[in-house]
Amino acid sequence: MLVVQTAVSFLSRIPPTLAPTLGPRVGWPAESVGYLTALISGGSIFVLLLAAPLQRRLGSMRTLQIGMALGVAGALLCALPSAGAPVVGSLIIGLSIGPPSTAGMDVLQRYAPPSHRNLLFSVKQAGVPLGGVAAGLLLPGAAQWLGLEGAILVAAALGAAALSAVQPWRRRVDAQRDRTLRLRWRHFGSMDALRRPLQTLVAMPGMRRMGIVGGCLATGQSTWFAFLVTYLVSQLGWSLVAAGGQFALMQTVSVLGRPLAGFASDRLGDGLRVLRWMAAASALTTLAFAFCTPAWPAWAVVTLSVLGGLTVASWNGVLFAEMARIAPRESLNEAMAGATLLLLIAYVMAAVLFSVVLAVGGGYRLAFVMVAALTSVALWPLTTQAHP
User: Fold this and answer.
1) Cα separation values, 43 from 2, 89, 337, 344, Å
2) Which of 35-44, 85-94, 348-357 is predicted least confidently?
3) φ/ψ of residue 293, rounded to 5
4) Cα distance between residue 265 and residue 271, in whole Å
5) Phi and psi, residue 190, nearest 5°
6) Of 24, 28, 292, 329, which has the fewest Cβ atoms less than 10 A away?
7) What's the rounded Cα separation, in Å, for the pair 147 and 139?
């Protein structure tokens, strides 16, 4: 699950890590990366809602592989020298994100011991920043040496390798798939498939509150992931390679921070307390980041990136583990899909709102201050959520 999550995350980081080159190449400002990020999140929402029948029929592992194949195809489209290619490619990359998320959680729910669930969910979610580390370190340098097309081809090749690497586990993991289910178009496009996750979420107050928490925390993560490289290059005067290294640093810290947060939650027996700490720290870190200027020493920006990796980017595993704890086993998939839907909508809206603020002349400072305020709203449902 970690390998697949890392590979999908790596492909989804193509637009944010290459934005200063990718945007101008097709005649767009670099700040338009927010719209591409929104398309990626929008594609993941579509798959999250409509692909459950595919998972039941083919099994979680095969569904993961289909997601990887979509990611590779979307990456290759981004390499084409057309203004529409990054749009379509980003949307298809977004379609690749949903399967590893829902299918991966299904596998962990079946195999993870309850006493280590927070840790194992966090290890799996560490694949998101781990993919970001690889993208930040590899893609800007590859673009400099091989050109934009060469860098994207490298990314697609790594995605294809991950798709093949998980094949040996397919027979065992997918042994319980429903071979009798006959897939029809109505299974994927019915209103019931759209309503069920939201109805399940509304019927569970605890899950509803955790969905709100995820949405608030996602606003910070979405904007940091989408705009960090562009912010450092266009506002603070960093080179693309240096900014990519900073992006990789933040993601590296998150690779360690996510399992650390899961371990702390298991030791304390209170994931909600850890989430409260992380929500407050995330809001404060984003607020401080809003006031960076070119006059700031490099070590200060590096320190904020480290703090961002520990706070803005490390809450996901604990949140998903808390959702799995609250939701009944028989309705876990629908409840998780509904709560994750709120999180992904926040990803989309945060990136779009950030780009709109920049487009109307509000500037990065105002945009980051708004994000910090939205992140702090997570403290309200966390103080009303029941203790484990």
Assistant:
1) 21, 10, 14, 10
2) 35-44
3) -135, 165
4) 5
5) -75, 150
6) 329
7) 10
